[in-house]
């Protein structure tokens, strides 16, 4: 079986499997009450079942493994990667059923990422153990970044599809032909799942799916760039995952500035802020996907030596920093009617207070005008300030 045929077969098989498996899992989730219920920190307005990620994982692992076996390319590296991905799906499923602490999740994600790096390798940047540590950190970061990115109908699945197609195209250049069919299977599974997950979504990925997607992509791209020296490896990895990286950075900065818990959910992601600009859900997902396509095309140019990796990294950092700064100006939470009325009331009270101040003349002899007089900041003045005859409030702020 030729490589191109095997890759296409893996993609089509995973698409059909995800398309068929999602509906029974959706019904099972509804019967068992495995649903994501609306809250003030979530954008959806009705209970929506989980377990969509289980369908994506089963489709990807089945199609990818069968294709690798048929082609005789199921080596230890691929086995460890697929095993780690299955572990992430299991971890996420447990978290969907009974929420786990962030520390416990990291204690499982980190060894799984370390095993992938130990067996499959990593890009060479500085040389030595520091590169392996950076690779493990990056895999864990992207895994959880996709978990955060799964905040709007079709967003995580669409972006994963784009990045997986990019990884599939560049797999032969990395000398890892066996990863091509796996990436094709991942992309096909996301397409099949999108028939159920596009807005308005009938089922969600859940942590089982988002952790699976992030870990599979990050691990595959790390292995694909094993022994790539200099800045080429980091440039490709950063460009391909720029949207999840920016989303996580934006959320962490926003919550830190507003003194909110960093790990508490909220409607402060890129997708939610774009919605507040007036874009529909489908327009938001389409915009993020187009941006990801542009980033992946840039990564392809770096992979084949048509774009300097240093230039690509600098451009990614500049664009990313500018995007985050602009998005920080958009409110991190919707302004409710009650909040707007309260703000209007405070402004009106301030205007009344200012209008109640006694007036004194200002300017020269020709241009005399009136302005409010300041109330003396003496103890007596604070204790018995004149009252406004209309509002019944002190004439000067206390």
Architecture overview:
There is one protein chain. By secondary structure, this protein is mainly alpha-helical. The chain has one domain (3-328). The protein has 15 helices and 4 strands. The protein has helices at residues 3-32, 52-71, 76-97, 102-120, 129-149, 155-170, 179-197, 206-224, 232-240, 242-257, 270-276, 281-303, 309-328, 337-355, 379-383, and strands at 35-36, 48-49, 359-362, 369-372. Strands 1-2 form a two-stranded antiparallel sheet. Strands 3-4 form a two-stranded antiparallel sheet. β3 (359-362) and β4 (369-372) form a beta hairpin. The chain is globular. The protein starts with a helix and ends in a 15-residue tail after the last helix. The model is unreliable at 336-398 (pLDDT under 50).
Layout of secondary structure:
Layout (H helix, E strand, L loop, with lengths): L2 H30 L2 E2 L11 E2 L2 H20 L4 H22 L4 H19 L8 H21 L5 H16 L8 H19 L8 H19 L7 H9 L1 H16 L12 H7 L4 H23 L5 H20 L8 H19 L3 E4 L6 E4 L6 H5 L15
Antiparallel strand pairs: 1-2, 3-4
What features would you highlight for this structure?
single chain; 398 residues; mainly alpha; two-stranded antiparallel sheet; two-stranded antiparallel ribbon
Say what oligomer this is. single chain
Sum up the overall morphology in one term: globular
Distance between the termini: 83 Å
Strands, count: 4
Domain count: the total is: 1
What's the Cα radius of gyration? 27 Å
Q: How many helices does DSSP assign? A: 15
Largest sheet: 2 strands, antiparallel
Q: Unreliable runs, pLDDT <50, ≥5 residues?
A: 336-398
β-strand amount = under 5%
């Amino acid at each position: 079986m030729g490589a191109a045929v095997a890759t296409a077969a893996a993609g089509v098989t995973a698409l059909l499997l995800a398309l068929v498996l999602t509906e029974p899992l959706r019904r099972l989730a509804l019967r068992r009450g495995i649903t994501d219920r609306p809250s003030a920190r979530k954008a959806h307005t009705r209970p929506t079942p989980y377990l969509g990620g289980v369908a994506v994982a089963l489709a990807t692992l089945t199609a990818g493994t069968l294709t690798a076996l048929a082609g005789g390319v199921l080596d230890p590296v691929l086995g460890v990667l697929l095993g780690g991905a299955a572990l992430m799906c299991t971890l996420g499923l447990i978290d969907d059923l009974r929420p786990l602490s962030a520390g416990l999740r990291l204690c499982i994600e980190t060894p799984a990422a370390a095993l992938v790096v130990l067996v499959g390798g990593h890009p060479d940047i500085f040389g030595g153990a520091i590169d392996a540590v950076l690779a493990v950190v990056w895999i864990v970061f992207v895994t959880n970044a996709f978990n955060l990115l799964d905040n709007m109908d079709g967003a995580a699945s669409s972006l994963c599809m784009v990045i997986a197609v990019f990884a599939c195209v560049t797999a032969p250049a990395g000398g890892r032909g066996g990863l091509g069919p796996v990436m094709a299977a991942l992309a096909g599974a996301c397409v099949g799942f999108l028939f159920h997950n596009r807005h308005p979504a009938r089922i969600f990925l859940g942590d089982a799916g988002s952790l699976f997607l992030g870990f599979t992509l990050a691990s595959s791209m790390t292995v694909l760039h094993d022994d790539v020296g200099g800045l080429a490896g980091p440039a490709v990895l950063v460009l391909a995952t720029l949207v999840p990286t920016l989303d996580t950075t934006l959320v962490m900065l926003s919550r830190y500035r507003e003194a909110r818990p960093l790990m508490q959910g909220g409607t402060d992601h890129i997708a939610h802020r774009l919605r507040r600009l007036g874009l529909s859900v489908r327009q938001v997902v389409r915009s993020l996907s187009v941006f990801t396509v542009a980033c992946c095309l840039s990564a392809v140019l770096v992979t084949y030596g048509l774009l300097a990796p240093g230039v690509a990294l600098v451009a990614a950092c500049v664009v990313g920093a500018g995007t985050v700064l602009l998005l920080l100006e958009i409110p991190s939470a919707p302004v409710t009617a009650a909040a707007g009325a309260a703000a209007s009331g405070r402004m009106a009270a301030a205007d009344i207070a200012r209008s109640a101040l006694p007036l004194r003349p200002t300017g020269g002899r020709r241009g005399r005008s009136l302005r409010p007089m300041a109330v003396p900041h003496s103890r007596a003045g604070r204790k018995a300030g004149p009252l406004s005859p209309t509002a019944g409030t002190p004439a000067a702020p206390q």
